[in-house]
Amino acid sequence: MLPNTPRSIAARALPRIHRVPIGRLSTAALAQYLRPVAGSAASRSGLPLSVAQAGNVRTQSRAFATASDSSFATLQPSARKPLFDKILIANRGEIACRVIRTARKLGVKTVAVYSEVDASSLHVQLADEAYCIGPAPSSESYLRIDKIIDVCKRSGAQAVHPGYGFLSENAGFAEQLAREGIVFIGPPASAIVSMGSKSESKNIMSAAGVPVVPGYHGTNQDPGFLQQEASRIGYPVLIKAVHGGGGKGMRTVNAASEFHEALDSAQREARKSFGNADVLVEKYIQRPRHVEVQVFADQLGDCVSLWERDCSVQRRNQKIIEEAPAPGLSPELRADLSAKAVAAAKAVDYVGAGTVEFIFDNDTEKFYFMEMNTRLQVEHPVTEMITGLDLVEWQLEVASGNPLPLTQSSIPLVGHAFEARIYAENPRNNFLPDSGQLLYLSTPEPTHIFAPSVAEHSLAPPSGSNEFTPVVNTSAALAPVVRLEQGFEQGAQIGVFYDPMIAKLVVHGRDRTEALRMLRGALEEYRVVGVATNVEFLRTLAGNEAFVRAEVETGFIPKHFDELFPPIPEPSHEVLAQAALFVVLRENPVPTSPSPWSTLTSRRFGGDVYERTIAIQSEDTSAPPMSAHVQSRPGGLFDITTHTASGIHTFRGVSAHLASPTSVASTLDGVRRRTTVVAQPGTAERLHVFDGARKTALVLPPPAWVLALGGEVGGAGKGALRAPMPSVVVEVRVAVGERVEAGQPVVVLESMKTETVLRAPVAGVVRAVGCSKGEMVEEGRELVDVEEDVGGEAEVKA
Length: 798
Fold this sequence. Notes:
- The protein is α+β, with helices and mostly antiparallel strands.
- The chain is built from 23 helices and 41 strands.
- One of its GO terms (cellular component) is mitochondrion.
């Protein structure tokens, strides 16, 4: 019999996994993913399930399908069709983990698929079975329909949950599954074709009397014709891929001279992401909001609205923060949006979860149909929070042939919820994605794994009211909720092949003010080292006055750019002192218990006093250098003097110790502090200091003898172009000896499904090309070197 250790408990609690050792799953991951559902007594109290209880989860979860907290429990047993025994999840990351949790709750076994680079991913560890389906590129793995169907047959999976992205809106995939006798957990292929096509869906909505944005939605893809249509519509226009979503294949064009280059880029990105390069062109609304309605339909013809979400704040045409319900909508507008969304779904005999997206013009207060996403959305948790419903459970039940458990007038709407997407990206570098290993990851403690139970707090609409007009309950005595949707653990590798989203942080409160306060507090607890993230940006955004007032629009970030990206402040003297203490204590730890080595008088060459000056730099290499002088005093105390550009400060009689390998506890000027400090090794070691809510990255310059060994010390020349992130080279547009103008495109890169065009920084002649099409390049690699013109054209040498 196995002993009761966390590793052995994990081995009993989780089923056998192909080629992945169970022991890699951390205790924290077990606590999160094996915590009871929100309806259980433990989760209602906000208490996490201990690892010691994990062995009982399978038994508890299998009983939940008929538990009172399930919205399908009201169905008569004789009328209820059984769920699938086993499903395959044709996806990865946090959505795969999300589906696994609901499946486990319902007693449904899960099959994961993974690419070679995802072999040790969290979704692989959590599933009952896992199968490798190919190399890292999604075209050779997650988009391979034949391989996924083969795994279904080998594993005995009866149905496929596609998640979002990849094959989730691929009608051919749904049709092929049907031919093989495998259920697609989603809408019929006909609905995917009709509503997945932005052109056809707009025609359907126009016929139904729903206003659409002026534009060209036809099939003629001739570049010259499309440019004529753009001129007819009037700039600015939006080029948008007909198929797909997530901001892929979308470009804003402000002038005719930019059209062809934007069209080429949008089509290329659309072809890679969705296998179809067709685009539409429509008027670009200057101050729009993005408001979308969650709909759900069963196989019996019933369809309901689960209310709306606001997803207006975006970067690179992709959402980063969402909320439900949308702030500032009148009951009449909410009812109108919901009614139109339900009508759209019924018009194509929709089944399952879908989202009807609208553009709301802030200037005219009119709304226009934009598109329908025929899948579960990334932001579905905010809808779950205000309704108390598990949408993945609804998907499984509806796909099994069961009717919707609630009528429109019974759908709750309680409180307010936010979701913040945690991305591996650098907001201060135009939100370019980042990649690398999650060297350190500490997250806020979730209170719930699913949504809170809100049914008892909801109010029935008054008699005679529109069925799409709920009574919004903002006074419910509901405890605030923090929920975390995570697909990666500490130590995981964030690669360049897939979307850079690490996790989703979801909160719920009685009203928008409380929910926003919960969001800010939870973001302050996030600690990530190893890749750049948008956590600090999200915290700044959540505290922005205009955002707090709900003055949202899709152009929110550029409009409030200066407020969202204030100058990076000089590191405080307290931060420098804590960093210096970390370095000193790491090398000379203070003993925690008496011993001869700590009680005997020390002897050092040159004296008994420890003394050291530590040179420190900001990550901004243009900032002035800093330093901290540390000197020991009797009784294990220190005097620390910090030097910055703004002045000098001395902390006297500082008591300090390492509370953990990544935590310094000290008393500075009478204030007790506990600061997280994470070291990132390298020639120049980086120290990531988390002091309260702020992260400060410091660099310890390498010693002179290291620099003397050679190697590149300075940055690139003025005409050199370097890879801003690990990327795949899509196109090289210049050759050695070719003359280029400043701003001319020279290299196109792709990282995490996003294209980036690098342009010549100066006018001159190309002296070197350091990359080729299809090559993987690391961050900082010199790709092209341009010799700048000096007083005329650059001299062309033989």
